[in-house]
Amino acid sequence: MARWQRAAGAALAMALALAVQGCAREDGSRILGHWRAERFAVMSLKLPVGPELHITRDRLASADNALALPISAITQDDDEVTLETAGAIGLSFHFVEPDRMYVELPFVGKIYYRRVADTPPEAVAQGSAPAAQASVPAPAAPAAPVRPVAETAPAAPAAAPGEQYYHQALASAREGDDDGALRHLHRAFGAGFSGAGRVAASPEFAHLRTDVRFQVLLSRYDGE
C-alpha cells in the first residue's frame, strides 16, 4: 500500500509540473494582434460579418474605435483564449489554426477572424507600438571654398601651314637630315610660305647653299 501511495504521489507531482509548464507557455499571447473578419457572399457581394479587431494586453478595439473595451486579464485553456473585460465578462475566442479563430455570439453564431500580417503579435504584446522616432538629418558638411577661376589667356592663333613646314625644315636641318629639310621647305613654299629671304639667311641652312636642289628652290620662290 505504501509503495502504491508513493507512485500515485509522484504521478500527481509530475502532472502538476506539466500543468504549470503548460500555463507558462500558453499565456494567451497568440491572440494579440490585428484581426480581420472573414467575408460571406450575399448575391454578388462579399461582406465582412464583423469589425476588424486590434487586441493588445490591455485593450480590445475595433479599427474605427467604435468598439473599445479595456482588458483586465487574458487566460488560455488549450485552443480557447478568453479576454476578461469590465464587469467580469469574459469574451472567448477559439483557435482552429494558428492565424484563424472564431468567436460565437448569441443570435449571430460564429464569426471567423484571420490575422492580418501588418502587426506581428510580438509588437503588440508590449501594448501599443511606440511611435517611430523622427529621423534627425545629419548636419550638412561645410561647403568647400569657392576658388576663383583663373582667367584663361586667349589662345595664340595657329601658325599657317607654310610656317609649320618651315619650322619642320629647320628642325630637320639641325638634325642633319638634308633631304627632310629640303622636302619640308618645298612644302612650305607650296603652302604659301613667302620667306625665301629668311631661308637664305638662316644659319641652319648654310650647309645647303651649295646643294643644287636648295639653289633651285630658292630661285623659284625668291621674289614671290
Structural summary, described in words:
- With 224 residues, this protein is of the alpha+beta class.
- It has two domains: 27-124, Lipocalin, CATH 2.40.128; 161-221, no CATH class.
- Helices cover 32% and strands 26% of the residues.
- The protein contains six helices and ten strands.
- It has helices spanning 2-25, 121-124, 161-174, 178-190, 196-201, 212-221, and strands spanning 33-37, 39-42, 45-48, 53-55, 59-62, 68-77, 80-85, 89-97, 100-105, 109-116.
- The strands form two sheets. An eight-stranded antiparallel β-barrel has the order 1-4-5-6-7-8-9-10. A two-stranded antiparallel ribbon has the order 2-3.
- β8 and β9 (100-105) form a beta hairpin.
- The protein is rod-shaped.
- The termini are far apart.
CATH topology of the largest domain: Lipocalin
Mean pLDDT: 78
Number of helices: 6
What order do the SSEs take from the amino end to the carboxyl end, as H and E? HEEEEEEEEEEHHHHH
Distance between the termini: 147 Å
- CATH architectural type of the largest domain: Beta Barrel
How much helix is in the residues?
25-40%
What is the CATH class designation of the largest domain? Mainly Beta
The strand order across the widest sheet is: 1-4-5-6-7-8-9-10
How many beta-strand runs?
10
Low-confidence stretches: 16-25, 127-132
The shape is rod-shaped
- How would you classify the helix and strand content by structural class? alpha+beta
| Global Rg | 51 Å
What is the multimeric organization of the chains shown?
Answer: single chain
Portion in strands: 25-35%
Query: How many distinct folded domains?
Result: 2
